């Protein structure tokens, strides 16, 4: 009997076997994940490689039939040519885009967060109607309001000014909707404690809600800044003088019906995306957390 039991114990799988199998499967899955991530990163970086390669090349090498991985003679002078070109004030356009995108982001966050907080927290019998009206603005095509907005801005004398570039875009129905949905999930206990300390709606919003919602604000700021930096049609119409061009309008000036300056287009594009890269790298941690969260922890 003892011999039979010993044989059964020896033949039975030990507890280490499943763990080894699990560990082996984990290693394989991790390797596959790393390979897939590496391939995706490689494919993602190809356009940036082409951008930098062409930015440091001549027009003949960019459009030539014999493609080379690296240009024969790196044209560092393209950087100086970009900023010394008298026909396109590229340095001024970078400054204009930075001012417009920054003020646009601050204004949108302030206006839309107040609208979202009011719709989510302040009791009002017509709150739902106002909310549906805000959602209704999402269904109106931009082309419908473009001409009336331009006529209004022109009548106010805001053409070729920062006011004309920034103020008409401070309201965003979609951003208001996102803020409302976020504030609906915000813990009411924190606001109730603030009201017990004598704070009103504005005090609770500014001293309690905003400090505990920085992740979400950072996520919205990143998206809004990128949209403001990449805006083209409205700045093209409002910024009629070269001194008020934004970077996207300046980029379009290198491509006309007569000529296309390829090396300056690529160099200007490479320079123009650097601020977006810095903003994303600085805010990426808060961006991921803000998207992942629907409220606050704890």
UniProtKB/TrEMBL annotation:
Residues 1-24 are annotated as: Disordered. Its main location: membrane. It holds the Pfam family BPD_transp_1. It is found in: Cell membrane. The chain crosses the membrane at residues 32-52, 98-119, 131-153, 165-183, 260-283. It is a multi-pass membrane protein. The keyword Cell membrane applies. PROSITE patterns: ABC_TM1 (PS50928). Residues 94-283 form the ABC transmembrane type-1 domain. InterPro entries: MetI-like, MetI-like_sf. Keywords: Cell membrane, Membrane, Transmembrane, Transmembrane helix, Transport. Belongs to the binding-protein-dependent transport system permease family. This is Carbohydrate ABC transporter permease. It comes from Streptomyces shaanxiensis.
């Amino acid at each position: 009997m003892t011999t039979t039991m010993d044989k059964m114990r020896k033949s039975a799988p030990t507890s280490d076997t499943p763990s080894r199998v699990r560990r082996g499967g984990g290693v394989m899955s991790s390797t596959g994940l790393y390979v897939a991530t590496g391939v995706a990163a490689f494919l993602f970086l190809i356009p940036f490689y082409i951008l930098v390669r062409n930015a440091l090349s001549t027009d003949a090498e960019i459009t030539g039939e014999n493609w080379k991985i690296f240009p024969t003679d790196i044209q560092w002078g393209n950087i100086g040519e970009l900023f010394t070109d008298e026909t396109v004030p590229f340095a001024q356009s970078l400054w204009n885009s930075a001012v417009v995108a920054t003020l646009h982001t601050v204004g949108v966050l302030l206006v839309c967060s107040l609208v979202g907080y009011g719709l989510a927290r302040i009791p009002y019998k017509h709150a739902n109607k106002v909310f549906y009206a805000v959602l209704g603005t999402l269904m109106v095509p931009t082309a419908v309001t473009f001409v009336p907005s331009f006529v209004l801005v022109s009548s106010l004398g805001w053409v070729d000014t920062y006011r004309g570039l920034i103020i008409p875009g401070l309201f965003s129905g979609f951003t208001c909707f996102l803020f409302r949905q976020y504030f609906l999930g915000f813990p009411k206990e924190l606001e109730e404690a603030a009201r017990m300390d004598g704070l009103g709606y504005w005090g609770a919003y500014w001293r309690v809600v905003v400090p505990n919602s920085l992740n979400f604000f950072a996520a919205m700021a990143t998206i809004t800044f990128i949209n403001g930096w990449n805006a083209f049609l409205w700045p093209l119409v409002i910024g009629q003088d070269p001194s008020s061009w934004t970077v996207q309008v300046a980029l379009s000036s290198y491509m006309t019906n007569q000529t296309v300056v390829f090396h300056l287009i690529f160099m200007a594009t490479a320079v123009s995306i650097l601020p977006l890269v810095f903003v994303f790298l600085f805010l990426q941690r808060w961006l991921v957390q803000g998207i992942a969260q629907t409220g606050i922890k704890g």
